[in-house]
Specification:
136 residues, mainly alpha, elongated
Length: 136
Amino acid sequence: MSNDVCVSQAINLTNQLIACLDEAERHLSSARNWGFLDVLGGGFFVDLIKHSKLNNAKVTMDKVNYLMGELQRVMGSIAIPADYRMKIGGFETFADFFFDSGIVDVYMTAKIMGSLTEVRKLRDRCYDLKAKLGAL
């Protein structure tokens, strides 16, 4: 493949990544807001909505991981972080529903906020990459 084709593909993949990261940020922001409500005593239905938003974010982050793999393939030796999967696992979800206490709710909200920060950092890196690719 020519260098121009590789750059074009990389820019296209970066644009797709940015769109997916924007979507993940929306889901995580919504989950965070529901998490704040849960900390204030939201209960079972708030947990359901919050975890639905988290599941939507996880699906979107799976797309991000796929696109990052494709970008790695196109770019070759450029170092790209390998895994941005959601860091909220089955036990946390179980504990959030089963124990439904303020401590677990605060813990879950903190995990969501950490994921949101990571998504924003990755999106910033994608914008930086896109700018560098555009300069080629």
